[in-house]
């Protein structure tokens, strides 16, 4: 398997270097067609290899069009997943965003002026704010997936306190190619206290309600708490950052059910060279923690990740991870190498 790791490294290094050399340094991802209409594009090229599979690559182009309206905006976006033997696509944004000024007759304008409502298909993420941007709960911003949510989101911000509530409607099947059988709803509340970029914060609390599937409650109430600390280094350049998330079920869905928990924490060195970051992640999830889009149930994981932001238009990322997953009373160990190149055209 060392051959595959060296092959992946060499191939991705050559591709990323070539793409960086041909990319202008002053071009941004947003293209304004007029004062209210703009297009945002991001392309991601991923290559990965582990101790059980051959090298695997993915190209994931994403395009979002935003049309500004009076006190509102219409957003439509799509994302493709191009692989060696198949291509998938999804519309991951199709929503209307607006300030509820029509409520001024019933609600004080000081509240509605700071409120934003998003209705339709959208991306919801409760990712940890660090180099890894992974979540113990919902994360529609995963690089290697075509995730989205559908429902109503109400967002309000007053000073350093930010709140949002999302009413999610979903449809699921029992397998990838099976027809949809299960329809349900769930509610997600997020509270942020603090200002990003300061020494501590923001502190983030996420509460997710039990899902209602086919008219029955099938998941317990759960909560997640996270934050970060960032301080400048004295002797060497850059800042160090410590970030964490801790999540737990708050109620028991069955009398014999043990409350499931999960946590992740990372230590990062930001700007050890200008525009370069490196970090290490540790995580754990209990056997029945099935609520995360980034971590598997019963998984213990260690990951080292390096990022290089080349310019406003391109960045390179490498990650080396080792995971132990409990499967049928046996522990499976997986070592993986991931490369990602993000660029805009």
Outline the structure in words:
This protein has a single domain (2-343), classed as Porin (Beta Barrel), CATH 2.40.160. Helices cover 7% and strands 56% of the residues. It has helices at 2-22, 109-112; strands at 30-32, 37-50, 56-69, 72-82, 87-98, 115-122, 149-158, 161-173, 180-193, 203-208, 212-213, 216-217, 222-232, 239-249, 261-270, 276-285, 299-311, 314-327, 330-343. The protein has a 16-stranded antiparallel β-barrel with strand order 2-3-4-5-6-7-8-9-10-13-14-15-16-17-18-19. The chain starts with a helix and ends with a strand. Residues 1-5, 16-27 and 174-178 have low confidence and may be disordered.
Summarize the structure in short.
The chain is mainly β.
Essential attributes:
19 strands, disordered N terminus, 345 residues, 2 helices, mainly beta, Porin
- The CATH homologous superfamily corresponds to Porin
**What is the percentage of strand-forming residues?**
over 45%
Radius of gyration: 21 Å
**Roughly what is the average pLDDT, rounded to an integer?**
84
Taking pLDDT < 50 over at least 5 consecutive residues as the criterion, the unreliable ranges are 1-5, 16-27, 174-178
Got a strand count?
19
Q: Which series of helices and strands comes N to C?
A: HEEEEEHEEEEEEEEEEEEEE
Question: What top-tier CATH class fits best?
Answer: Mainly Beta
Distance between the termini: 35 Å
């Amino acid at each position: 398997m060392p051959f595959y790791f060296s092959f992946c490294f060499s191939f991705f290094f050559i591709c990323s270097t070539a793409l960086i050399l041909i990319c202008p340094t002053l071009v941004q991802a947003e293209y304004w067609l007029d004062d209210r209409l703009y297009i945002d594009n991001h392309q991601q090229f991923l290559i990965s290899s582990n101790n059980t599979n051959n090298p695997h690559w993915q190209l994931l182009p994403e395009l979002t069009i935003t049309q500004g309206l009076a006190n509102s905006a219409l957003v439509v976006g799509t994302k493709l997943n191009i692989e060696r033997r198949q291509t998938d696509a999804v519309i991951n944004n199709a929503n209307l965003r607006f300030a509820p000024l029509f409520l001024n007759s019933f609600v004080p304008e000081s509240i509605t002026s700071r409120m934003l409502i998003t209705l339709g298909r959208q991306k919801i993420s409760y990712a940890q704010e660090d180099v890894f941007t992974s979540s113990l709960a919902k994360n529609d911003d995963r690089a290697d997936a075509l995730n989205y949510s559908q429902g109503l989101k109400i967002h309000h911000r007053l000073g350093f306190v930010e709140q949002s509530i999302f009413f999610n409607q979903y449809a699921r099947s029992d397998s990838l190619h099976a027809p949809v059988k299960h329809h349900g709803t769930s509610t997600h509340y997020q509270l942020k206290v603090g200002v990003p970029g300061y020494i501590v914060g923001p502190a983030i609390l996420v509460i997710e309600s039990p899902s209602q599937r086919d008219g029955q409650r099938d998941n317990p109430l759960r909560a997640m708490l996270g934050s970060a600390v960032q301080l400048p280094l004295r002797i060497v350049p850059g800042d160090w950052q410590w970030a964490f998330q801790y999540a737990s079920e708050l109620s028991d869905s069955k009398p014999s059910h043990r409350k499931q928990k999960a946590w992740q924490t990372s230590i990062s060195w930001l700007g050890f060279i200008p525009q370069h970051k490196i970090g290490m992640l540790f995580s754990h999830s209990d056997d029945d923690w099935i609520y995360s889009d980034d971590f598997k149930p019963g998984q213990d994981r260690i990951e080292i990740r390096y990022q290089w932001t080349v310019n406003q238009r391109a960045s390179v990322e490498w990650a080396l991870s080792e995971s132990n997953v409990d499967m049928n009373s046996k522990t499976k160990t997986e070592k993986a190498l991931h490369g990602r190149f993000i660029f805009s055209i």
